[in-house]
Each structure stands twice: as C-alpha cells, then as structure tokens.
Write a structure and sequence with these properties.
Blueprint (H helix, E strand, L loop, with lengths): L1 H12 L6 E5 L3 H7 L4 H21 L4 E8 L7 H24 L3 E5 L7 H14 L6 E8 L1 H14 L9 H7 L10 E4 L18 E4 L9 H13 L12
Parallel strand pairs: 1-2, 1-5, 2-4, 3-4, 5-6
The structure holds 3-methylbut-3-enyl trihydrogen diphosphate (2 copies) and magnesium ion.
The site of one 3-methylbut-3-enyl trihydrogen diphosphate has 11 residues, from strand 2.
Length: 246
Amino acid sequence: MFNFFRSVKTQDALSVKPKHIAIIMDGNGRWAKKRLMPRMSGHRKGLESVKTVITQCQKLNIPFLTLFAFSTENWLRPSQEVKFLMSLFQDSIKKESSALIKNNIRFKLIGDRKPFPKKLNDKINSLEKFTEENTGLTLSIAINYGGRWDIVNAVNEYRKQNHFKKTFTQKNLIQNLSLNFAPDPDLLIRTGGEKRISNFLIWQFSYTELYFTEKLWPDFNEKAFMAALFEFQKRERRYGKTSEQL
Ligand code: IPE
Ligand code: IPE
Ligand code: MG
C-alpha cells in the first residue's frame, strides 16, 4: 500500500515527461563477468530490465519506447553468442506475444530483417499486424539495426518510388526511415557507462537529450529509470534558440 502511494506521488512530481525514450541496453556481459558467469546469463537477466522499463512507460503513459537489442556490428561477436542472442529474441517474441497483446502494446521491429530465418520473420510480421491497432505503448525493438543502414535503406526505398528528378528533401528521408511512425526520441538512456551512440538512431538523435549511467543493464531498475526521468526534466531544450525565447 505504502509503495502504491509513493509511486503515485513520484508520477505527479514529474512535470515534463518524454514522449519517446530510446535505450541502449548495454553492460550484460560485464554484469555476468562480475559474477563469474557466462555472458549469456547477463543477456537472460537483461530481459527482466526490459520488462521493468515497459511497465514503467505504461504506468507513466509514455507513448514510445525504442530498445536497442542487437546492432549491425554485433554480428562480429563470437558465433556462439550471436546464436544465443538470436534464439533469445525468437523465444522472447514467442513467449511474450500474448502479454503484449493483452497489455494493448503496439509492437514494431526495426532493423534489417533479411538475414533472419523465415520462421522468425513470420512471427514478427504477424505480431506487428496483430498489434497494429493497439493504442497503448508503441514498443520498438531494434534488432540487426544500424543508423547508417537505416539512412541508406531509406534512400533506396525512396529511389524505388522512382522520383529521380525531384530534389531529395529531409522529409523524403524521414518518411522512409524505419522509425517513420514515431517522433524523434526526447531522451536516450545508455546503461553500462560508455558515452557513445554505437550506430543507433544517428539521424533521429539530433536534438535528443543524452543520459549515460554506469548502471549495468541487468541492474537497471525502477529507481534507476526514474532517476533518468528526473534528470531529463531538468534539461532546457533550446533547439538552437536562446533561453529567453522559450
Ligand atoms: C548489451 O550488453 C547487449 C548487446 C549488445 C546484445 P553487452 O553484451 O554489450 O555487454 P558488455 O558491454 O559486454 O558488458
Ligand atoms: C550497443 O552496445 C548495441 C546494443 C546495446 C545492442 P555494444 O556493446 O555493441 O556497443 P560498443 O561496441 O561498446 O560500442
Ligand atoms: Mg556492450
């Protein structure tokens, strides 16, 4: 009961909330290493933090959450780890589908799906279709995603529409990026202590507030999430203007 009242109070205290949060979920390997466990157990434990942030976004009515799960560069990891991660994604999508549907979540996958097995692609497509009309949180998972891939892919998509003679505009690009259904992220959270973007949403982060925390992803809990939101609401977003103009 006490916890319930405390969490209502915390929500009220947030006067400015991001509409779109992007997260680089980093530090699973180090979390496991610290415990003398294989890296894979860190990835598994990281799933609990995924559930925590989804629940928090729902509680706070944050409409968009985008999670970086596997980059185009992560294929360079040992093949055993890559295989493990791919099967973890496949299992999680299968296992969590009904919970996503039940919770009114609109599911999206962003990234290059071409190398995925057909079975996985079928599952992703049907979950996206099935949750298309859901009105709650839009949850985008970035798998085999790279910001550079996204931009080149968007240009190629545009070229397919055969507008060769027209001048290419920012709008043309934005309409063909994989996050074309969402506003740019207001807040990026990166766990694990590194202060870099690692080829995530390089176009969309132009005016995103960046928040870096030493916490490793499996340790990222409700308190750590709220700390990021409290830091976010202290930031003054000027978009090139002066403070006085706001
Ligand atoms: C993030 O954790 C998960 C993925 C990139 C798939 P890491 O696996 O990168 O963990 P660290 O950075 O090695 O600790
Ligand atoms: C970024 O983490 C990618 C994901 C979290 C999916 P990495 O661990 O791959 O990033 P770098 O290699 O340290 O930049
Ligand atoms: Mg890492």
